[in-house]
Design goal:
With 168 residues, the chain is α+β, with helices and mostly antiparallel strands. 39% of the residues lie in helices and 12% in strands. The strands form two sheets. The chain has a four-stranded antiparallel sheet, covered by helices on one side. A two-stranded antiparallel sheet has the order 1-2.
């Protein structure tokens, strides 16, 4: 006996089971892809954060070294007032640069928080970012004080009168 056909479909129970299995298989595939993509997203965001941390260390160190260079370039030992002083030293009549460009804070993409002295001298910078650093050890010798810091705001790139660096 031939199976009955209703509305252009085969009414046999075997076809209903096959269609249900196909739908279940598609749902499982979508779920597996979602889990995989979530994992890839997590790894990618971690890599981006590590890259920004490395850039923060490079840029902060460049600014600290520029401040040191500015102070050492003049016998009076005066500190710069702004980034502009580091980009073009106003104390001399010729072009003297201590910093190549006004680096931005890579963690926020904006301005640095400035560390200033009582007279407005620029001693250093630090990031305004509030997150906890992934990097907790293996810092360069000048930045061993950054070990186990709980915030990027604690990574201070500074030089103080007397030649001392920030050691908090």
């Amino acid at each position: 006996m031939a199976p009955s056909i209703r509305h252009g479909r085969c009414a046999s129970p075997a076809n209903h089971r096959q269609r249900g299995f196909g739908l279940l298989w598609a749902l499982v595939c979508v779920a597996v892809m979602g889990i995989y993509l979530a994992r890839v997203g997590t790894v990618w965001s971690t890599q981006v954060q590590r890259s920004r941390e490395a850039e923060l260390l490079r840029n902060g160190d460049a600014i600290r070294k520029a401040i040191q260079s500015y102070v050492r370039a003049d016998a009076s030992g005066t500190f710069p007032r702004s980034f502009d002083d580091l980009l073009g030293d106003p104390r001399v009549s010729f072009a003297r640069r201590h910093l190549r460009q006004p680096y931005v804070d890579p963690m926020t993409g904006g301005d640095w928080e400035l560390i200033r002295g009582a007279q407005g001298e620029l001693y250093g910078v630090y990031s305004r970012a509030e997150g906890e650093p992934l990097k907790q050890d293996d810092f360069p010798p000048d930045y061993q004080s950054f070990v186990l810091k709980k915030s990027y705001q604690e990574w201070k790139f500074a030089v103080y009168p007397g030649g001392g660096m920030m050691r908090r």
